[in-house]
Amino acid sequence: MGFESSLLEHVRGLEPSITRAVSEAVRLRSVTGHEDVAAPFFAELLEGLGFEVDVWAPTRAELEGKYPYLDREERLGERHNVVGVRRGKRSGPTLVVNGHIDVVPAGDASRWLLDPFGGVVAGGAVHGRGACDMKGPLIAAVYAVAALLEHGFEPPGDVIVQCVIAEETGGMGTVAALERGYVGDVAVVPEPTELAICPAQAGLVKWRIEVPGRSSHTAVPWEGVSAFEKWQVVYAALKDLAASREATLSHPLFDPLPQKAPFACGKVHAGDWPYILPDLLVAQGRIGALPHEPLAELRAAFERAVAEAAAGDPWLRENPPKVTWIDGDFPGWEVSTEHPFVAAFSSALAAVTREPAQPVGVTYGTDASFMVDRGTTPVVFGAGSISHAHREDEHVRVDDLITQAQATALGILYWSDSVG
């Protein structure tokens, strides 16, 4: 049996270990702000696989002036990053595996079919919050690297595994790891991509709009102006803007997707009493941008659409909506599909699945953005679907985790061969 076949068989044999580890990790309620409950698990996992482990809690002093969104973070100095390192015997390029150990809240548990923090293994899948976003894919990637090293693979340089906090609030954990010196030449970010190789990420900006109205008793609504009704004017204009962008924007890695640069409103609040017309509506959401699309131009187009909608409405013309840009933008990025790292992973996935690998872009933000700023070439690749993240009944299929692990191990091997 050749090295590649033996490696893939070895990874397949790790299915019980991977499944058990993902199940255990899901049972840890590491909701953003409380990642410290999961840090010991990941530290023990990496130590058991032969990594030198560094565990620390990023502080305000450490990140002041380096991460712009510190004010939104809770319990600074109490939430731990975990980084594992395997030193290479050569002085070649450094490989990073980056994944976040924080998860979003589970919401109403009664809406889940299974306990959101039960880590139940059923129907060929691990179920629960964080199963696909992204404890499952992170653990699969870690085991892939460990399998390679156990198989006698000599990486061209160091191998770094970053298990970071606070991705869901903007990426503080990854910034802290980079500031601590854990920077790589290439990186695998195992977010859930449905096993697609993703060498490009759309950008996004987060908006907040305040729409004024005039209160009145609901028995005499003609004496007031409903902020909710005026929001419909603004929202319709923004939907038109988004539709126009979808019709005119084009990118080969994003054209196959249902939307290339998604626009969505995720939060609306208006009124404090059911029998008073609301005098203010506040809406928040996001709008996407293709890689290399200047975010300043996107903001300007967005503000222009709001202003034009207001100009066509007598009330809003005199009482214009206010647009505010919320901290936490993710700039888009793109790596050529011909880059040796991307090509290696595409070839590896094709070898494992016996089907051609078709690279695509992702429309959500990832911590890869911060690594690109440091000169790292990333690939986003993982089991699970973003459609199952941030919602009830999150899960990841075990077979997909194994396919991911096999393709990751083979992709790193192919890349290593390409750099000598």
How much strand content do the residues show?
A: 15-25%
CA(first)-CA(last) distance:
24 Å
Main beta sheet: 6 strands, mixed
Count of alpha and pi helical runs: 12
Main structural class:
alpha/beta
The sequence of SSEs as H and E is: HHHEHEEEEHEHEEEHEEHHEEHEHEEH
List the uncertain runs. none
Q: What portion of residues is helical?
A: 25-40%
What average pLDDT do the residues reach?
96
- Give the CA-based shape: elongated
Query: In angstroms, what is the radius of gyration?
Result: 23 Å
Oligomeric state of this protein: single chain
Tally of DSSP β-strands: 16
Textual characterization of the structure:
The protein is of the alpha/beta class and 420 residues long. It is built from twelve helices and 16 strands. The chain is elongated and about 80 Å long. The longest helix has 22 residues, at 227-248. Strands 1-2-6-3-7-15 form a six-stranded mixed sheet, with helices on both faces. It has helices at 3-12, 15-26, 39-48, 60-63, 131-150, 172-179, 227-248, 295-311, 314-318, 340-353, 368-372, 398-419; strands at residues 52-56, 81-86, 95-100, 121-122, 125-127, 159-164, 186-189, 200-201, 203-212, 263-270, 280-289, 322-330, 333-334, 361-362, 377-380, 395-397.
